[in-house]
## 1
Amino acid sequence: MKIIALLLLTFPQEPSPSLDALLDQAQDRNPAAILQLADGSASDLSETDLALLGDQMLIAKGNQLLLLGRLQAWAEEPVGMERLVELLDFEQEELSAAVLQTLRLPAFHGIEEIQSSLAVWLSDQIAEDSPSLWSDAQYTLFRTGGGAQRRAALRTLRSVFWSENLELRNKSVLALGRTGSTLGADEIEVLEALSEGIGADAILAQTLLDQVEQELRFRSKIEALQKLNASEKPNTTKIVVESDQLAVLEEVLLRIRSQHMEGEKYTDEELLDAAAGGMLRLLDPHSTFFSGQEYGEFMFDMTQAYGGIGAYVNTVDGVFTIQRPIYSGPAYAAGLLTGDSILAVDGWSTANQPNDDIIKRLKGKPGTEVKLEVYRVGWSEPREFVVGRATIKLPTLQPEMLPGGILYLELLDFSEDVASRIVEEIAQAQEAGALNGVVLDLRNNGGGYLREAVAICDVFLPADKVVVTTRSRTGADEIYRTSSKAFVPADIPLSILINEYSASASEIVSGALSIHGRATTVGGRTYGKGSVQNVFPLSMQQDERFNESSHSRNRIHDEWEEFEDLNDNGTYDYGSRIKLTIAYYYLPDGSTIHTQRDHDGRIVELGGVEPDRAIEFPEISFVVARELNRILEDNPFKPYADKLFAEDKELAVKLAVNDNHDTALYPDWDVFYQNLETELDEQEVRRWVRRQLRGVVSDARGKVFPGNGFAGDYVEDPQLREAIRAVLENTTLTYEGIPEYADFIAKY
């Protein structure tokens, strides 16, 4: 099976926002919205604007000062951050909370000016005037300061434990718990009392108590392991099984090392990782053990950013080939196209080299260059390309305006900022002309961040609508609601495409919007993953420290970033993690989307979201698949598509968008079809020719067609056509009245 590696691109296709525009937008927004605005726009600011942040910080006030401070997280050297402390005010707790959250960002840790200003501010405050803000500020000083400041913050928090103000005592204990410091018996007793209440403090208290309990269990097991290691190891002829169950694992390891035929090929670390993974798999399909390498890959999937040339690549028939450039990336800007072969990287031949080794050479620090030797079919000899590397975010939203004023949005996953991207695309469509409806494609979308799912529902629903509720073993429900009025008016209809691979956040969005009557769901029943997973680091295996570059700020180690190589292996090592299921999701009507299983893993209650309109995507029959495999060995469709595009670009673009299922529109079709000598129907051949043609046209127009294969192509995709129909039923237009769709009705 061919695996396509990702080499990421550089800048988004839409124009970068200016700093002045962001400052204007910040004027009328609340603190939470200002943070969202900054986080969603910072990576797109020009280097010039980033360089101006420090000067602007000296004169800005209020909301604009908060925005500038948040943007400084992406600056090369943050300047003037101590001015944010001026915004702290017991009378404005929401603004103050946003300031402290910003100051706790890793980019601002260790800045003495911040620590000094915050310490001075705290010294002038009376803790009882606002226990919550005072405690949060002490916690912030702990997080951002050095050893002296951290110790001072802990002492100050503990000094108010016996205060007559119970709120101050409670808030200070919660702050102490958040620092990770060892809690005393009296402090644990306060947490226990708080956990019996309701609200955010109760949830936090219970979480901290769980951590205390886990720490105690962990210590007891470490002590047991130390006793085992101190005792004499059993030999292969006489195994002594301790009463402690950890001795079972010790014996299994010994048997593998000494007797298994492949035992020498695996380290103890690999075997223990497998044991941990087995325990978690027993619990449910979604709890997972991450080795350090697996965790690094997981973090990349969630942040979708690193340095590279911006292309999908793979080795094809022994040649390292560009499958498709990412059209806003540096490879495409330098002139590289689909099908180009990369023969050498900086003079190093790619022949017979593993994909990973080639990709490592293509990747590198943004702003550096890589020299490529490239061959393209039709050239007499290879040519040299110099490509600048860049840091980009992998596109997670593919938009396309369809006939009838319908905006089609293919959402690939719920990674960072997708909700704001959806808002941007809808706003652009509204500005360009009449927007009659939206189709949101969540097929094959495995989910992602819960906050992005809630934010997307906020785009379409009015304020204070329940999106999802989480319920955990603690018995505390957490309800997520929309927070502002709908960005998209209710008279603009919405359809959502789902299938059996739509999971988690996809199910929350489709289920909530359908239950509230805001969307029509089309396709197949979703996967049924309605559970919440949290990732927890393991105390015994810490990440190696690294210096994050201002080019990325992606919270994961990039290959060009310096790090502390603790084990002298020459590579950066993450610590292991575990991902645990800690709660279930419940939709606004009280139903759960999670498939329930018994102790043996058998399904006892089917989960998922049932579509409002069930439409199956047609499968290729065995006979057709067998014949296609025979033909695709030589792939005659690609040369035909290339020739058509070379001779008539206008016609090629037209057919790629919509050919009305008409083979007569294709030049010399009869000759081409007869030369195939195939039993395939002409319409099947036409579909595959057009599929190749859409790839060729994508390079020419600098924009990929949304979807995957025939999915997302309204000419071939019956689920998408039904979603379009559902949208138009709620407008003054009709499906039959739009020529691009009416033709399908007449012929099929």
## 2
Amino acid sequence: MAKKTERVIGYDASDVQVLEGLEAVRRRPGMYVGGTDIRGLHHLVYEVVDNAIDEALAGACDEIELIIHQDESVTVRDNGRGIPTAIHPQKNISTLELVMTTLHAGAKFGGGGYKVSGGLHGVGVSAVNALSAWMEAVVDNPRDGKRYRQRYERGRPQGPVEAVAKTKRSGTTITFRYDPTIFKGVTYRFETLAQRMREMAFVARGVTIRLVDERPSDFPRLMTFYFEGGILSFVRYLNRNRTPLHSPLYVEREIDGVEIEVAIQYTDSYSESVYPFANTIHTMDGGTHLTGLRAALTRTINDYARKAGLLKEKSPNFSGDDVREGLTAIVSIKHPDPQFESQTKVKLMNAEVKGMVESVVSEALAEFLERNSSSARKIVAKCLTSSRARAAARQARDLVIRKSVLESLTLPGKLADCSERDSVRTELFIVEGDSAGGSAKQGRDRHFQAILPLRGKILNTERAGINKVLSNKEVQALISALGTGIGDQFDMSNIRYGRVILLMDADVDGAHIRTLLLTFFYRHMQPLVESGHLFIAQPPLYRVAVGKKVRYAYTEAEKERMLEELADKKVDVQRYKGLGEMNPTQLWETTMDPERRTLLQVTVEDAAVADQTFTMLMGDTVPPRRRFIQTHAKEVRNLDV
């Protein structure tokens, strides 16, 4: 048999390219800001604001202003020391130009300009400059009383640094407009930026942060954040819709130049709300400071429970999950040389921080429990309840896992599985009711689409312990169908469907069921949401027919536009009260056909906001929910739905 040969493509010195200046950032933006989606877009703002926060950490700044202009440009202004403008001794150009246009140029490499900072690599503002259509830097220099200015386009200076006026103020003002050829189809979300600025104001105690959005046509949106109480105020803010079991524990200490702040409070909630920060940056993936906090909590509470006789000799120790149920905590460290996993700074890697945080929290918590016996007993009782519930849940979970999918589903409408076994290609439609389930089963593509009808409204998992959650038949059906397990046993590698699609009626009951399902997925299968597997289907509201020609309207406004276009014709308009009113063909054409349907992907842009929203909407405390409904009732009436 003849041997098959392939032509080998040449590779020599001429194939090796060197990207000069900021071109590397433009070619690979994901390495520097995490991507070109809405998260990457917001990260541009965070990088610039982080520099202002670093001035605050140095004690040189107490006011920061962030403005979103009508043309989508952004201004970040602080009253810090101002970027130096003198000629740099090594590069023979203005230090301002060096900082703004050169990677790895900054004052945060141990040169004495900053004791602690969030900016470490000298990459942040220069990367933002590279990814902006234009940028303008204005420095009010207190060293000589002059205002300096320089403009850039796609990272390139458009002239030298110029002195343009005299000034008595100090600080830096950066204005930039993201490059629309890199960030396509995205825009700033005021709520996302507001949450980030709020977090920074909590962690950078005593700093005033002002956020202005000039884009609304009727009036600018304005929010000002200032918290004298720091992270202690943050914990109280997070628990404002929950019932605390005790007054917050707060500890602040410095070990070997590392400042450690921790605030802890238990509530009657079933969820854990813990947020770690390093040099004011929210390390969303945790790190060694979070590991130290968790280790201290587990060990100290177990030691106290044994010593006080609240945990019997033969009883097993509380697990980490047991001691974290209902916990709200903030751990914030300020390190002179923090090591992050990447430029986007989502995880702290300093090994020594774990022991420092663990030592500080263990000592403070042990003293708190000894001094506050009533609070200590409430905390241990919460852990005991959690431990017993998890033991009962473990048995229920094992039962669910051991059974096959069809054995575990006890709903009248059984799971209608698909023939495809590759989860990358498969979809699971979770459908409201047997009637809609019947239409969906008949209308689907059986090769890759599975249907799971649910009877009625599932359990509100925000108000239920894990044992009660796992004893619910609808929840059992969901867990069995997806194959991932839940909670600490969740395993994404076992997922049976690449897309999980919520298909509910476009009415109040449908919205309620959808919210209950979203609560379940967020609280018990959060990785599924974070990895982009959860979607919401968009069925039409109206069928508009002219003779045999049929069109579908998905909003009230779309229906009105259609009726205006067809004003001179005889039109038959049908309002779909529920999915069950649609025949299988109509359901396929409008909602299930991948070529024509519209799906909304469920994402979590900010965990703290999502946590608060679910607590407020689905928790036990009524007044916050009433205020939310009263505030947004007018908006809902005016929506195009």
